[in-house]
Amino acid sequence: MDINFQGQRALIRVDFNVPLDKDYKITDDTRIQKALPTIRHILDKGGSAILMSHLGRPMKKLKAGGSIDREKFTLHHVVGHLSEQLGRDVKFCDETVGQKAKSMAEQLQPGEVLVLENTRFNEGEKKGDEAFAKQLAELGDVYINDAFGTAHRAHASTTTVAQYFDKSKKSFGFLMKAEIENANKVLHEPDRPVTAIIGGAKVSDKMLLLERLIDFVDNLLIGGGMAYTFVKAQGGAVGNSLVEEDRLELANKLVKKAESKGVRLYLPEDSVVADKFNNEAEHKTTSSKEVPDGWMGLDIGPDARAAFEQAIMEAKSILWNGPMGVFEMPNFAHGTKHIAEAVATSTQQGAFSLVGGGDSVAAVNQMGLADKVSYVSTGGGAMLEFLEGKELPGIKAIND
Ligand code: AMP
Fold this sequence. Notes:
Blueprint: E1 9-13, H1 30-44, E2 48-52, H2 60-63, H3 70-73, H4 76-86, E3 90-93, H5 99-106, E4 113-116, H6 123-127, H7 130-137, E5 142-145, E6 170-172, H8 174-187, E7 194-198, H9 203-214, E8 219-222, H10 227-233, H11 248-261, E9 264-266, E10 270-274, E11 283-287, E12 296-300, H12 302-314, E13 317-321, H13 334-348, E14 352-355, H14 358-366, E15 375-376, H15 381-387, H16 393-399
Parallel strand pairs: 1-2, 1-5, 2-4, 3-4, 5-6, 7-8, 7-13, 8-9, 13-14, 14-15
Antiparallel strand pairs: 10-11, 10-12
Helix pairs in contact: 9-11, 10-11, 12-13
The protein binds adenosine monophosphate.
């Protein structure tokens, strides 16, 4: 942030899309914590902060013929907690743009903080509307984007707004900068061998990621539900396991591509299979290629764990996205747990590890290993798209 903030009103796009309970209390404030260094820096340097963010999906009911649920989705819910964290008063404007927002922004003194109402209360936000973005831009002297989690969306507050600021008057915040730098560590000239661990439910969600990874990783470990599409495509019997029939051909294509590029592709040799999709279901270990009829693979088995662990321990760079099984159910969380521990141990021995994507992040947090890996990304979809090699609109808008 090469900007002199002295006396400047900084319009900052943060990600305050925090989970709330039924009394609108914040149940996990990670996203607020991650935004604090940028806000504090600007205030310490003599600037003031105008914070904008979305919260939830307030337009959902509107589309179904109802109205915006302002009580549920107002950003006022974060004001008290933010004020405690910053140790100072935080003002709130119950509009995002307009006369009131303008006058509150104008009156802001150095060191003061103003939170604007949920950007998604405005139709123009998700459309990336220029008139709405211009109104936002008028509130600040400089624009800072620190919301990596929404950087893949070309919305008004994440992207369009940036065009109203000169290059010298806009910048990434510390969180955005860290996300980009850490992803680039894996993508550009990483220490080798590079091991990518990809799991989760569907191949179709991660198709582009897999294709791109095969271009530069040394080992590709595939676990989770998506592995069974590969196993079936290779001629295995997978019983009732999750399979995307329309992706079998693609799975074979990816296997061939890996072969031709000299990438070692690991599928789970064995699986923990269950007779129902339920934690209490009967379960046993079988070869992943011989899942009995009526049974489904819900986790990688002990042989797969050992093989995956070895590739992780030998790696110098590790990328992990997606759980190895249905880790929400304790009986099928062992694979994910072992992999998380192996990533932490390998990191301790000098590897660089990046954990990205909602569920693998949840797994690492749940196991208390978040500070034992090199970097935990805050962006699910945004990190996936970044790793796929796409230019994210929120990043481009600052660089342009
Ligand atoms: P994703 O959002 O694609 O990373 O997928 C995460 C979800 O995949 C989690 O909710 C897991 O429960 C689910 N999952 C992982 N392994 C399996 C499996 N073997 N069968 C069904 N679902 C799975």
